[in-house]
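Board notes, transcribed. Complex of a protein with NAP.
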Amino acid sequence: MGQIMARKNILITGASSGLGKGMAILFAKQGCNLALCARRMERLEELKQELEGINPDIQVFIRSLDVNDHDEVFKVFDAFKADMGQLDRVIVNAGMGKGASIGTGYFKANKQTAETNFIAAIAQAEAAMQIFRDQNSGHLVTISSISAVRGFRRALTVYAATKAALTCLTEGIRIDVMGTPIKVSCIHPGFIRSEINEKVKKVPFIVDTETGCKAMVKAINKEKANAFVPGWPWAILHWILRIVPASSLKGMS
Ligand SMILES: NC(=O)c1ccc[n+]([C@@H]2O[C@H](COP(=O)([O-])OP(=O)(O)OC[C@H]3O[C@@H](n4cnc5c(N)ncnc54)[C@H](OP(=O)(O)O)[C@@H]3O)[C@@H](O)[C@H]2O)c1
């Protein structure tokens, strides 16, 4: 409980749908002020109203942001900091999953996924960590994926590679600030229903958005280095996934 109250002002990127929106709702219920950004401003306006209805005691700030516009990432994060006075936690959540097998003519979609999930995450981490280093406090959270632990085929080929890179980036940042008041966590969700997978019918162990977001928020509040959520089955399955032969990963994408 103490830790939840300590992280009062929370910035979430990609908050207009899915997990970003789901986490915002749960943090609002916990009494946190929220700084929310994404490209679809009308979605954020609706969400702001919903959150203020859920908890009239909190403050909700919204701004439009395309995370691939790196100059804007710095401007928007700084503006949120000015709004709130201090940023206690930044959740690097914006992401996408477009793409196809390498060598099948979808370089553009694969590149867009790589830029959004990884290069833009570096910009968001840089902007957040500059603020945290200046404050000498803060909690950086990145939203990776269970797919970070292995290579996967087809649409997941580049996606999984970006998430492996994000997990590694997060660890590097954590080692950099080890022993300081700044904390760095990487969350690896399993499959959770959202717009990213709305067209995919058969997904192993998929849970609804609320169940998934509850597990994510619980893990974020624990502030551990790495978390695999929901704990069942992913806390165990990620170890198995790391060692199964590549041929058995064919059925997973
Ligand atoms: N759902 C799962 O099963 C699952 C599993 C593991 C990891 N994840 C990760 O969780 C994160 C959230 O995904 P989701 O499942 O909630 O998918 P989603 O419903 O499609 O939400 C993606 C969010 O990212 C934002 N976004 C995408 N491109 C952006 C850009 N260029 N600039 C700013 N915002 C951008 C979108 O907002 P706008 O379109 O309004 O900009 C949206 O709010 C992603 O990083 C994803 O890889 C999801």
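The chain has eight helices and seven strands. Residues 14-20, 38-40, 43, 65-68, 93-96, 116, 143, 145, 189, 191-192, 194-197 surround NAP (CB under 6 Å).
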